[in-house]
Design goal:
The complex is a heterodimer. Chain A is mainly α. Chain A contains 18 helices and 2 strands. Chain B is an alpha+beta fold. At the A-B interface, helix 8 of A face loops of B.
């Protein structure tokens, strides 16, 4: 071969591979010569933990599929085949119980670590320039994860599986004009049935996981291109030594791989404590009603989505006519404010005002159920815009006014309250709290361009804050 | 090939590129068509959800027949004139007299009136006989007046045997009962004066 390149540092088998495939080069780029800031703290464990959970889900999933049957028809005992196959895995497959509990606990664990990972991003401004794409890939992962979890939840074909899917798919029927046909199209039948179960199975085991893995790769490539942020929000690439390595950077491997292995070990202790001793998670990881087979003729007393969806579900439920009118008023107010106070050319001002008036009119015409559906979607879509909503001159909360941190804490508490309300049956008081909570959620993001630029900011240091230990 | 300046726009190549792209897009669309189409209900599913025709020629005032549509019981009641006349009298006792909160399907527009049925045949009431609480099938209690678990001022309607929810003769739920919503009204239309079809109206099949 003319292009044969014998100048690799490695010899032997690795050398043979390196002459044909960039193995050592890739290992260096992403592990031993990927320089991460040396001041990472506790919050930086959740990225790697979500990869661990992804691996757990894929591995246990592969083995669950070997015994699971996506079939809604009734067997000779009058039990749906899908439900019976899950019972079979639980009772008769050796080790099947642990496979299933690892998978079900993994679903909740996935959301726990991903929510904490996202909170870390909010805390240290990890979504800010130049990491916008890292954040956007992350939001897409979150979206794919929600789809994956929702469709996976139908597979055991229990009461909650069935009615949860029924309620969520019916949300699409609230879309004006195309809604009813669209919901039939999604289900493949007029009720959630065998067709729905089979397509959700296909999406859950192959389509969405493929997308998920692709997005995780993109997330990491984008991260390694721009480099990791850190608790100080200082760009370590700004200061490099003579050999071009960041002064405040340390090789990911072995320094952080060792840290991460420790974190993974602690996580696995907690994870398997749940798997072995508390697999139902108090009815939150596996809902009680899902131990009953799906029955289209009998609705459960109270249909609640699994805990990780409830903050968004609460916002959906919160939209009743009064809140819809508040949104109409807010849309008009925002349009008028942009017109009077906005810092843009006259033409753009008129466009913004016209857009706000059209939005207000549509919100008036549309039914509350559809507006609720839109609000739930908007609650997720707004996350994508975070890099451009945050106008703070510094990235990290450490150097922002302390009331910014206060607002972030309020936002988190508000999110938890919304989550709590979503697992409870609707109540009049809860309804008002949910409406206020929805306004707080959107207020936090949509008023961000204003509040993030107000207050006394501290000057971040040139080098990261780091105390050797 | 290589003697051309790569920066210079080659019109011919551009055209060929557009043509190739266009044909590829057509091919891709054709390839995707069966996949998207497979999402629509199959012939089997469509047959299972087909509209049901009901002959109501023999249905006398004050009587009800039960038919099945999409795996659910559907009631067809012929209300007496007295029954329809009294429907608005107990509006204050209802949780949602104007049917603003649909259960599993939207109320057909032509039924959005005080009788919850087609105004030209306001004696014939069609509704899905599934309690909006836990999906039991309520029983007809058409006789006025209380007795048993019914209140003294019972205007006639339905009682759910499971948890005691009560509905009036238009399927509207009474206040302070476990069931939160009114009974569903399916889309339906009259094919003749004595025949109705459930699951289909002027707008097509539901």
């Amino acid at each position: 071969m003319a292009d044969y390149n014998p100048n690799t540092e490695t010899t032997g088998l690795i050398g043979w591979i390196d002459q044909r495939f960039p193995l050592t080069k890739m290992f260096k780029e992403h592990m031993s010569e990927y320089y991460a800031p040396k001041n990472f703290n506790f919050w930086y464990i959740f990225g790697v933990l979500s990869m661990v959970v992804l691996a757990i889900q894929i591995l246990t999933g592969i083995f669950l599929v070997m015994n699971y049957k996506p079939d809604a028809s009734l067997n000779s005992a009058g039990v749906p085949v899908a439900f019976a196959s899950v019972e079979y895995i639980m009772r008769e497959v050796s080790g099947g119980k642990y496979l299933r509990f690892m998978h079900s606990t993994g679903a909740s664990a996935f959301f726990i670590v991903v929510y904490l990972h996202m909170f870390r991003g909010l805390l240290y401004g990890s979504y800010r320039k130049p990491r916008e794409l890292v954040w956007i890939f992350g939001c897409l992962i979150f979206l794919a994860l929600m789809a994956e979890a929702f469709m996976g939840y139908l597979l055991p074909w229990g009461q909650m599986s069935f009615w949860g899917a029924q309620v969520i798919v019916n949300l699409f029927s609230t879309i004006p004009l195309i809604g009813p046909d669209l919901s039939v199209f999604i289900r493949g039948d007029f009720v959630v049935g065998d067709a729905t179960l089979n397509r959700f199975f296909s999406f859950h085991v192959i389509a969405v996981p493929l997308v998920l893995i692709g997005l995780v790769v993109a997330h990491i490539i984008a991260l390694h291109e721009v480099g990791s942020n850190n608790p100080d929000g200082v760009e370590i690439k700004a200061l490099k030594d003579a050999s071009g390595k960041p002064l405040d950077g340390i090789p990911f491997h072995p320094y952080y791989s060792v840290h991460d292995f420790f974190g993974i070990a602690v996580f696995l202790f907690l994870f398997f404590a749940v798997v072995f001793f508390w697999p139902t998670g108090g009815g939150y990881f596996l809902e009680d009603n899902n131990y009953l087979q799906a029955n289209s003729m009998q609705t459960p007393v109270h249909i609640a989505p699994v805990w990780y969806f409830t903050p968004f579900y609460t916002m959906l439920r919160a939209v009743t006519d009064p809140l819809r009118y508040i949104f109409v008023a807010l849309a008009l107010l925002a349009g008028v404010m942009a017109y009077l106070r906005g810092n843009m050319p006259q033409k753009s001002k008129i466009k913004v005002l016209a857009g706000a008036v059209i939005l207000a009119l549509l919100l008036l015409i549309w039914k509350s159920a559809f507006v609720g559906f839109l609000i739930m979607g908007a609650a997720i879509v707004v996350l994508f815009f975070l890099p451009w909503l945050d106008k703070s001159p510094v990235k990290s909360m450490r150097y922002r006014p302390s009331w910014h941190m206060g607002l972030l804490i309020c936002f988190v508490i508000n999110f938890l309250i919304l989550g709590y309300l979503g697992v409870k049956p609707p109540s009049p008081v809860g309804g008002y709290v949910a409406q206020v909570g929805t306004l707080i959620y959107f207020g936090f993001f949509l008023l961000m361009p204003w509040w993030t630029s107000v207050g006394e900011f501290k000057q971040p240091p040139e080098r990261v804050t780091f105390k050797p230990h | 090939m290589s003697d051309q300046n790569p920066k210079e726009l080659n019109e011919e190549r551009r055209k060929l590129l557009i043509a190739t792209g266009g044909v590829s897009a057509l091919g891709a669309a054709a390839f995707v068509t069966p996949m998207v189409a497979s999402f629509a209900p199959s012939v089997k599913a469509k047959a299972g959800g087909a509209p049901v025709e009901v002959d109501i020629a023999a249905l006398k005032p004050g009587e009800q027949i039960v038919t099945e549509w999409r795996g659910k019981p559907v009631w067809v009641v012929r209300r007496t004139e007295e029954m329809t006349a009294k429907l608005s009298a107990h509006n204050n006792d209802l949780a949602d007299p104007k049917s603003e909160k649909p259960y599993s399907m939207p109320l057909p527009e032509y039924c959005n009136n005080e009788f919850r049925c087609r105004p030209e045949h306001k004696d014939v009431m069609v509704m899905v006989g599934v309690c909006t609480h836990l999906g039991c099938s309520p029983e007809g209690k058409f006789k006025e007046g209380g007795g048993g678990s019914l209140p003294e001022a019972w205007p006639g309607g339905y009682l759910c045997p499971c948890h005691g929810s009560t509905f009036d003769l238009a399927g509207r739920v009474f206040k302070n009962k476990p069931a939160p919503q009114n009974l569903d009204v399916p889309p339906y239309m009259f094919v003749s004066d004595t025949k109705i079809i459930i699951g289909k109206d002027e707008k097509g099949e539901a």
